[in-house]
């Protein structure tokens, strides 16, 4: 399937998640691209929207390739191939601190008037616009699990099958619309895939 845009993908995901309609799920979107999608899904399910702040740790000399990720608490996921991709302990620590600074800036900008919504005892649906390595999603799910959600769901429009298998170890349920064989990048499965700016994220979150 080629999605028209993120709105189209979100509408399809909301339909696939309809079992949670009326159960007031907490929809946590991975900024920035998934935030407009999270808004659509939360509205369709009668849920609540917030962001889950995680950042990938890019490989040296290849910023698009994740060798790990870090969440808001500082908890870090390191992929088993990180060392072979040049991720020395020193590099990883330096990159972790750089990404944590971005996370702190985004939290202050996105939700200045409230702390992250507590997922304890909630149905939590973590949304992204697609997965490549899955590192960022794994970090998000791992961090959320320690905060005792009642059910932890990963929901994405598209991802490779091997990535879903890795991610599935950290979630109670994985909802993915498409698992294409010829996967190169998330953007190839969208006709329109513009960058989402911080200003749009702030505008969407302030609706709540």
From TrEMBL:
Residues 8-190 form the Phosphoribosyltransferase domain. GO terms for molecular function: glycosyltransferase activity. Keywords: Glycosyltransferase, Transferase. This is Phosphoribosyltransferase.
